[in-house]
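Postdoc handover notes: sequence design on the structure in folder B. Input tokens:
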């Protein structure tokens, strides 16, 4: 458990340092500080050889025909979870920060690309991957890594969503053997959020997906249907994907 725990600790330390840098240099965008922490996390873990660069990002190993099914399954899962997340009506301590960050190029890059890549490397490759490689039972490793991924966001409204999407990403990682597919899914998810915030601007704070869908009942039906499609497609992905060695 030492290696996977160490990876998470390094991630937390780097994230904390980004907050310290922002507090010191308040004239600069927080996005630069967060991007720097993400890049530093990846570089540090790479120097410690906690992951294999070639295997972790080996695009040639991906079964794209089946992989697309996994990506679409995750998209339906995210859509369902977005609706459920709104219905929980939990506090969102980061919304204004995210809206502010999405309005700049560096902020959009940080949310949509740098953070997803760093998080996939830490929580899928270094945490889940190390647990699996050291003999942890599959479902225990997937559940533990998903819960840690959720809790590490520290934002009440994000924790259940991140845990659930982390579970989906962990299954896809387990089958594909690296973070190529999960990174694509994570980047697409965050990019969609950035696009929404850029389009809506300050009004994003008051936007309600349930209202846009036509009310509570229709929203629940959409969420249930989307999750059902996600489960069916994810099952098909798992049955048809040629599992890679992690």
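Designed sequence:
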């Amino acid at each position: 458990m030492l290696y996977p725990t160490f990876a998470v600790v390094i991630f937390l330390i780097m994230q904390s340092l980004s907050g310290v840098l922002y507090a010191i240099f308040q004239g600069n965008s927080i996005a630069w500080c967060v991007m720097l922490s993400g890049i530093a996390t990846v570089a540090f873990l790479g120097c410690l050889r906690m992951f294999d660069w070639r295997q972790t990002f080996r695009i040639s190993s991906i079964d794209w025909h089946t992989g697309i099914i996994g990506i679409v399954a995750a998209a339906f899962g995210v859509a369902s979870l977005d609706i459920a997340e709104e219905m929980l009506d939990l506090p969102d301590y980061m919304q204004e920060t995210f809206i502010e960050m999405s309005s700049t190029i560096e902020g959009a890059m940080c949310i949509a690309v740098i953070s997803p890549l760093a998080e996939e490397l830490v929580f899928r490759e270094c945490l889940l991957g190390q647990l699996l490689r050291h003999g942890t039972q599959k479902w225990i490793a997937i559940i533990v890594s998903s819960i840690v991924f959720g809790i590490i966001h520290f934002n009440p409204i994000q924790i259940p969503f991140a845990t659930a999407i982390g579970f989906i990403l962990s299954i896809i990682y387990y089958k594909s053997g690296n973070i190529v597919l999960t990174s694509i899914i994570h980047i697409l998810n965050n990019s969609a959020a950035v696009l929404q915030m850029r389009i809506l601007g300050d009004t994003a704070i008051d936007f309600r997906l349930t209202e846009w869908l036509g009310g509570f009942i229709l929203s629940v039906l959409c969420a249930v249907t989307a999750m059902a499609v996600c489960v069916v497609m994810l099952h098909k992905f798992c049955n048809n994907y040629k599992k890679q060695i992690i």
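Context for whoever picks this up: The mean pLDDT is 92. Don't rerun without checking with the PI first.
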